[in-house]
Amino acid sequence: MDRTIPTVTGTRLPDSLCTHTPKCPTADSPDREAAHVVAGHPEQGWSLLCNAVLLFEDTGELLPDGRIVAPHRPVAALV
């Protein structure tokens, strides 16, 4: 049984890269950024999470289905 999904780049990833217990949040969960990093490239400014989300250093995200989440940095409070 083929347990892979197509991605934007045409590369195929497993349905779930998460082997953690308890399971990490899915790519559709509001807390998806809490998933474990499976490939980190800070020198390039991105990390692949085990839920197949690409997380960028500016807090933007590319979801496995191709949707883009705009950067959502916290706004600094004026003192």
Low-confidence stretches: 1-12
Give me the count of strands.
7
Structural class: mainly beta
Q: Spell out the helices and strands N to C.
A: EEEEEEE
- Please give the radius of gyration in angstroms: 14 Å
* Strand residue content: 25-35%
Sketch the major β-sheet: 5 strands, antiparallel
Q: Figure out the total of helices.
A: 0
Query: How would the global form be characterised?
Result: globular
* Overall tally of structural domains: 1
Helix content: under 10%
Terminus-to-terminus distance: 58 Å
Average of pLDDT: 80
Strand line-up in the sheet with most strands? 3-4-5-6-7
Protein name: DUF5999 family protein
Organism: Streptomyces thermolineatus
Pfam families: DUF5999
InterPro entries: DUF5999
Structure write-up:
This protein has one domain. By secondary structure, the protein is mainly β. The protein has no helices and seven strands. A hairpin with a 4-residue loop joins strand 3 (37-41) and strand 4 (46-49). The chain has strands at 4-6, 12-14, 37-41, 46-49, 54-56, 61-62, 68-69. It is globular and about 45 Å long. A five-stranded antiparallel β-sheet has the order 3-4-5-6-7, with no helix packed on it. The relative contact order is 0.18. The protein starts with a strand and ends in a 10-residue tail after the last strand. This is DUF5999 family protein.
